[in-house]
Design brief:
The chain is an alpha/beta fold and 232 residues long. The protein is built from three helices and five strands; from the N terminus they run αβββαβαβ. The protein has a domain at 121-229: Trna Endonuclease, Chain: A, domain 1, CATH 3.40.1350.10. It has helices spanning 2-137, 183-200, 215-224, and strands at 143-149, 159-168, 171-177, 205-209, 227-229. It has a five-stranded mixed sheet, with helices on both faces. Strand 4, helix 3 and strand 5 (227-229) form a beta-alpha-beta unit. Helix 2 (183-200) packs parallel to helix 3 (215-224). The longest helix has 136 residues, at 2-137. It is rod-shaped, with a radius of gyration of 56 Å.
């Protein structure tokens, strides 16, 4: 009887221990189930976020592709504009070179024509210009002043010097009319003016009338105070 009681007590104790273990295992199971549910929620949230990121990535990828296409179009337009610009510049350079060649040719012809005209008909040209000279100066009459330069002040050797003279209101104006003028013509008129001032005692106004005068002639006129009239 006593042995039977001890066995029964031992069985009861083991049952209680197993029951405690079962309860502990069940509690752990419930905790694991809870953690699983939490992890499952997190996984679902992460999956949702992943899908959202993928959607955004695809949208950004499309935007990048569109931006790249626009960039390529802009680059192509810039390349075309550069080609057009280069072509226009080449056309302009060719046109400018052609224009300058024509201008050089025209200038050479004009100089040659003026020089030939000056050699062949300087006197006739001077006579034709008298009316215009009188209009420019406002003088009633243009005369010819002639003086023998014995000391060679003008030409460097003794020679007769002639120049047109107009006097108005006490102002003496020496006028030289040339079909084509250069710096040497300006210097010659200036020397005639110096001679006239020494001989007559009056400092004259110097005027050069010519349809054409080169750049060196204009520079000389500015330095020596000679007035130049080229438009008639």
């Amino acid at each position: 009887m006593e042995l039977e009681d001890r066995r029964w007590e031992e069985s009861g104790r083991r049952w209680e221990e197993n029951n405690k273990r079962w309860e502990e295992n069940w509690r752990r199971w419930e905790e694991s189930e809870k953690r699983w549910e939490e992890n499952n929620k997190r996984w679902e949230e992460n999956w949702r976020l992943w899908q959202e990121n993928m959607r955004r990535w695809e949208e950004n990828q499309k935007r990048w592709e569109e931006a790249y296409r626009r960039f390529e179009a802009i680059e192509e337009e810039l390349r075309r504009l550069r080609e057009d610009h280069n072509k226009l510049r080449e056309d302009f350079n060719r046109a400018y070179e052609s224009f300058m060649r024509r201008m050089d040719s025209f200038e050479r012809r004009l100089i040659a024509l003026g020089a030939r005209w000056g050699l062949e008909s300087e006197e006739a040209f001077r006579e034709a210009m008298k009316g215009i000279v009188q209009e420019i100066l406002g003088a009633g009459k243009v005369e010819r002043w002639r003086y023998y330069d014995g000391e060679g002040e003008v030409l460097g050797y003794p020679a007769w010097v002639e120049v047109d003279l107009a006097i108005r209101d006490g102002v003496h104006v020496l006028v030289e009319v040339k079909a084509s003028a250069s710096d040497s013509d300006v210097v010659k008129l200036w020397r005639v003016g110096c001679l006239y001032e020494r001989v007559v005692g009056v400092r004259p106004r110097l005027v050069l009338v010519a349809p054409f005068i080169d750049e060196r002639g204009l520079e000389a006129s500015r330095r020596l105070g000679v007035e130049v009239y080229t438009k008639t």
